[in-house]
Predict the structure.
Amino acid sequence: QAQLVESGGGLVQAGDSLRLSCAASGLTFSSYAMGWFRQAPGKEREFVAAVSWRGDSTYYADSAKGRFTVSRDNAKNTVYLQMNSLKPEDTAVYYCAASQVPAPIEHEYDIWGQGTQVTVSS
């Protein structure tokens, strides 16, 4: 059974860095593009970043570009989200997801993790 498990969330101060990991199992990892989404309290879930099948192309929301970096290690069946210069508005539950294409839209993703909480204090 396909499964995605996020880790690396926590409580940090504004300006700090954090790296999220998403471990995949039960699927041919290199056949999927991978994406990151987040949902803050009282807001809809939004796209953050995505990476193509072999990691050669990346995509970012405007809020993430320049601060966040998405990457993948197909040998480890893992996708990462490096988050630098964190701001309080980055506070959210972060989800990883698998898609046939590296799309910035939620409905393209077939498999979802349960999420990991990121809290940025001011």
